[in-house]
Amino acid sequence: MLTTLKGSAGALLLSGASLTAPLALATEVTIACGPGGDSDMCPELAQQWAEQSGNRVNVISTPNDTTEKLSLYQQLLSSGSSDIDVLIVDMAWPGLLDDHLVDLSRYLPNDATEGFFPALIDNGTVEGRLVAIPWYTDAGVLYYRKDLLEKYDQQVPETWQQLTETARTIQAAERDAGNADFWGYSFQGRAYEGLTCNALEWVASQGGGTLVDDAGEVTIDNSHAAQALDLAASWIGSIAPEGALNHTEEESRGLFQSGNALFLRNWPYVWKLSQAEGSPVAGKVGMAPLPHGSQGESRATLGGWNLAVSRYSEHPQAAAELVAYITAAPQQKVHAMKMGRNPTIERLYQDDEVLASNPSMGELYEALRTGVARPASVTGDAYARVSNAFFNRTHRVLSGEETGTQAVEALGKELERIGRRGW
Ligand code: GLC
Question: Does this entry carry the keyword Oxidoreductase (predicted)?
Fold first, then answer.
């Protein structure tokens, strides 16, 4: 059964009506995860677990927007609701939600996380408690139209400046050739977690740091960060539509996949979808590391999703088993091959079938190795406020309400205030 959870916790739809008759001793586990469909295989894998284990599963689809998903979880968890047993959680959230999550190592055998990237297991471990198991991992990448770069004799850009110029040139030429809706660059500019990911890439790849460094010092108030934000603001209305100010991953993919953008910044899941039957850009897309600033190196923000069990679950054992099933190697392999979701188990990057299904998996491994983490571990339960402050300030710069310099100065003060008593 698939129900939808959106808006507020009050809108939680858990209609028992369509449930099949209870099986003897079967436990019903409710999992809140992705929307399924084009996006991930959560509903399908959860159903498989139910069939194989003789339990029942209720899949709740949550909002696509990462920030909305977080507020929904915060409402539910702070009320101690037992409505949800398993949750899909962003890799940036273990330190925010850990008080509400069980220690999975109490329920699972020791080898449940064997072969996983140690850094991802560390990310899901808070104060010695394994609160989340990594399911798939993400890093920002640049998609480009190889046919158009060839047509206009242009190179894949290595710097943001080159991206800006190439986008401008080809956008003008394509518009002259009759496509009035064509844009140079598509990215996620809405005021939400995705903008934090984009802006961190601009800033870090211009040598402007990561907002808060590993020692907990606020570092954002610097001229490199200001320049990076100013350059991004110059894109709005010139190489990117005003609408980008409200784009999340899927809207930005839509613009690119419809054939109306030259470059796209997004996560690896776009690859398979862009090559799918009926995609107007199938066979015309290339993937490259993100550009860097004039003063830095390419930095892809690290992302990805974990599965966790709510502390308020009435069935933590069955819930933990569902988590272990979905995140186990055979299921991760299918997820990688069918949906291009990057495994969190290292050996799958050497698996011939995985590599054959997605030739860029090897390159992605490199982006994952050198990626930049959001300052989530160091800021712990203040991370949501840190990220909110960053994406809101960045959004103001993109909207032309503030300059980069004003924004980083104000943001520096705001972050100092948030972290005043230590993180
Ligand atoms: C992707 C990433 C996730 C990030 C989100 C932002 O889903 O995997 O870590 O927070 O995008 O929109």
Answer: no
